[in-house]
Amino acid sequence: MRCLVVGTGSIGSRHCRNLAALGQQVFAWDVEARRLAEAAATSGARPVSSLEEGFALRPEAAVICTPPADHLAAARRALAAGAHLFVEKPISHTTAGVAELVEEAARRGRVLHVGFNLRHLPSLGRVRAWLDEKRVGRVLAARAEFGSYLPGWRAGRDYRDNYAVSAAAGGGILLDAIHELDYLGWLLGEVRRVFSSAGHRSGLAGDSGDVAQVTLEFESGASAQVHLDYVQRAYRRNLQVIGEDGVIHWDYPTHSVAIHGAESSSGAETVDDGDGNAMYLSEMRHFVHSVLEGEPAVADGRDGLRALRLVEAAKRSARDGKWVAP
Predict the structure, then answer these.
(1) Which CATH number covers residue 198?
(2) H helix or E strand, kind and range, residue 247
(3) Which of 7, 175, 259, 273 has a CA between 20 and 30 Å from the CA of residue 33?
(4) Can you tell me the distance from the alpha carbon of 196 to that of 159, in angstroms, rounded to the nearest whole number?
(5) Same structural domain, 96 and 215
(6) pTM, rounded to two decimals
(7) What does the pLDDT look like over 1-48, one tens digit per residue?
């Protein structure tokens, strides 16, 4: 399958390598020639000089990895060229035009995946299985956390060159850590309303939000508290789900899951999530299967839009100081 990767920063380069490892024919384009050359050298992808050249090759699939504010324009061009779509998270920096993109992909019969790679973690999948099995009974509450020091994200690169520091480019912790909002919806269902305190709190460069505290109330009656930040010096990503009959703990850095309830159903285990690339490789393998075999997407355009609506609701709540429906 011919695949065009649009944007060859960190995640775009990773997708180039993984698509090549899966035996796909990979072409790549980036606005920065140096970055494109590096990605081509490490993945074997064939560089193209322009998007026009790339789409003239009639790729069956396009993988959109530009800064979020540029996602929709590139995705529309890919659909017009007849390509199936994989769009990195978030699907865009605002919801404007996203529903139309989802509808257009469906009308054309094109696959539209969104890059919520955490859904491909076996450890988080174990949490979902336990919830489906009602192992902790009716869920009452949850607590999710992500924290990581932004200047340490890319070795050898000044963080001030990262789109993450620019609100206009689609940066900010609510968009970068949209995974938490996505997987909570995946695990607990639809959100009824949102309350948030969020903004640029630290001395980091840029104007994007770097700390957010978000409360979600679900249609089921459950609630969740979500903490997100760019400032913690020790990486953290974890989840606690509290049910009437027990508690589930998930910790990504240690790849561990635990359930505490009745003695007969309690236990802790380490789940083999593979190396740091395994979930991304699984995600891209799933995308290829979706295109070639018609396998339904684990995370599709509707999921991308749902999570983005939660981000916008959190931003409005932080601005207005009140509960907001997504």
Answers:
(1) 3.30.360.10
(2) strand 246-251
(3) 175
(4) 26
(5) no
(6) 0.95
(7) 999 999 999 999 999 999 999 999 999 999 999 999 999 999 999 999
